[in-house]
Hints:
The complex is a heterotrimer of chains A (about 350), B (about 120) and C (about 375). Chain B is built from six helices and no strands. Chain B has about 120 residues and is mostly helical. In chain B, α3 packs across α6. In chain B, about 50% of the residues are buried. The longest helix of chain B is centred in the middle third of the chain and has 14 residues, at about 35-50. Chain C is built from four helices and 16 strands. Chain C has helices spanning about 1-10, 45-55, 65-70, 190-195; strands spanning about 85-100, 105-125, 130-135, 155-165, 170-175, 205-210, 215-225, 235-245, 250-260, 265-275, 280-295, 300-310, 320-330, 335-345, 350-365, 375-384. Chains in contact: A-B, A-C, B-C. The interface between B and C is large, with 53 and 73 residues.
Amino acid sequence: MVVMKFVVAILISTGFAFAKGEVTAAFKRKDYHTVTDIYKAAPNNSYSRQELIYISYSLRQMDFYRQDIRLNVRLINQKYKDLHTKILNALRDGDSVDSDDYPEPLKILYWNLMMDFSHIIMGYSEKSDKLESDRQYFITFSKILSELEFREGKVDKLNDQVVAHLLYLDNKIYHFSSSFSLSYVSWQSEALLSGRGKEIDLIVTNKGFCAGGDMGIENYLWHFYVDGCFIMGSGGIQAKVNSDNVDYQQSNVPAYGFKVSPGASMIVSSSKSRIGIRFPIIYSRQDLEDPDPATGYEALNENPLSFVSTIYSRWQFNRWYFQTEFGKYLQEEQTFWGLGTGYNF
Amino acid sequence: MKLVCLALFTLLVGCQDLNSNSSDREKYGPTSLIGSDNFREAYPILVKRCGNCHTSNIHAAWASYQNEQTWIDLNKIVPSDSRNSQIIIRTINTGGNNANMPQGGSAIPDQEYETLIRWIDNL
Amino acid sequence: MKFIFYIFFFFLSAKVHAYVNFIGHGYTSCLNCHYNPSGGGPINDYGRVVAATLISSGALYPDNVTEEQVANASGFLFRKPKQNFFRTQINYRGFQLVRDPGGDTETKRWINMQADARAILKLGENDKFVAVLNYGYSPLPQGEKIDGVKNQTEWRSREHYIGYRATPKFGVYAGLMDKVFGLKTIEHTAYSRTFPQMTQNDQTHGLMGHYLADKWEFFGQYFVGNLSQEDQLRQKGFSGMAERTIFDTHRIGASVSQSKNEFLQLLSYSAHTKLNLKEGSAVLAEVGQTSRSTENGANENVGRFALLQTYLRPVRGLYVLSNIEYNKEDTKRSDYTVRWGPGVQYFPIQKLEVRFDIYNIRNFAPDTSTKDNWYYLVQTHIWL
């Protein structure tokens, strides 16, 4: 039994020796995958200091940041536990820290930890409780390194990158938005003079105001919403039919209705100016007078409902904005345009 | 040196001088109209409504057509037939697809439009 | 005597086209990029680099091309200049104009609007002394007759002037150049340009003073018309413009111009603003009025105009824009016109611009209702 234990011990130590030699060899040929495999198979082996450096580097190369964190924390606890406790207490109590009291290898371990947490944070695609926990660790190691005045420029740069990513995650989140708007609008609509077996197109040119607003969701890049407004205006109507001596003309005929538009915009600047498309559905009513009965014609309104596609632009000035909209009726010749202002709630 | 001066002189006097004022004499200077009384009424309307674009700066200088016959010779109008005259066909009052003048400007008011028609139909 | 007079107005060139919307990139004064402090004309070395690296898209360059390499290729014929006193530029602009698209009177025409060569002599520290010449092709308009045009050649000097900056803040310029007035937009057929007669061919011989303070900028100009033109037709007078930077990034300004020839007197006022909405997005606006008095009493009126230009830059090199114009030919009448022009402007690489604009014109009058006019332009602009 003793012999068996001795033989097993020899085999294991040979295996260990083999494994340890293999770490160095694999690292030197940049085979980080093999290095990490060896470590994962036997994480509690007593690796040399140099081998641990190789393993830590390889773990980071292979994006095994959490394993690297565990390795570095283990090393800190094994070799620098008192110093680690000392610096944590100093940070907690607001005491000054003398960088010379802390050896270079410890500072490098802190740097590795900060880098690992930065990579983990920048790998998140949305906010979560785990992210917040990782962020706290990142801040802790960032503060330690600042107190130790170690690689200050690189620490600042890493801080900036992480802050930018966290801001991006914040900005990615959609939030509810709403606003009120008032626009000066113009649109042409269709009507007919019907009679004597003929139909004559009437040109109706309207102008007025559209008061309403929008509701939707937006983040730093996209805005999806529904816009609605009530239209109040008036228009002129005209047609000439020289052959029948018909000269139909009306001015300032009241027009009213409403416009509902689903839309999507892309936010293109840090001032939140945006450009997008809308698909308004316009309902408008306008009562036309019939021409003199002796002409044999009567005025007919066409379908009061119109479908339009428009290009929409908005320029934001804090909560106020200025907007334009221009588009064409689908399968018709007429156009709709508007320019106005609005206020975000 | 002589070449430089020659180049300068050529540059300054030999270059095209077309600009917004090239037709000012015809549009705003004294006129000497030759034609019917109806033409004397129609001509100021044509200059006012069409002359800003139909100038030598952009197109032909209609303000220089101070002879009624010029309008006929250039096929702008068909005597006694306003319906088939280009300046009537192309003005937007008819509301048809052919009609898109004055482009970028206000429509010719009905009264002035009738003056033009009267001029042409009475030729 | 006349010859000496001509010699005094020795030539320098400046181009008439300017991109006022580049206030969206933080440039409040045109002097940053142009030899002519009122904008337009040839751009200086800094302007070339800005055009190459900030304005133009980098999407078509291979990945290994650096911004520095792009900047170094911004010179004439893609070369970095080897000396500091002489520059040349070539400029071409052409477009396809389609009127009444899809309609019975649809017309299509390719127009070679401009083909210029420019030479710039610049001497002294910070280009204290400049002499600019811009000479090129200018097609005569179609038509049967061109009265009032003495020289019916298709070549013209667009600008030629000398400039001297006594200090970085103050400069004087003499020669043939654009009149100073309002927003010098690229759209020379805009009502804000045609009403006060500030179009692409309305350069004038004159003397201009320019003063640039911390937040203010002033222009004053006395002009005698284009000396190539016969004397009776030359508009002579003065113009002035003042601008102020507000909130560090925006500009507001006002302009006045008064001139007359034997037949027509003009008095124009305008107020304008240029708003920087960051990362290349901008809003430009101008409102103004022109009063005309004529020798024969015809066409005497006060006309009003307004321009709103909006630019949004979704990605580098691409601008989505709208031109919205208002035109009331005669304030005594109630009718007016609105012209709406959405468009897209793309700079795929440096020295190349492609642009598409569509225009809709709607008339508003109490006793008429007429169909909209439509036309569109597809434009190519190349400069070397």
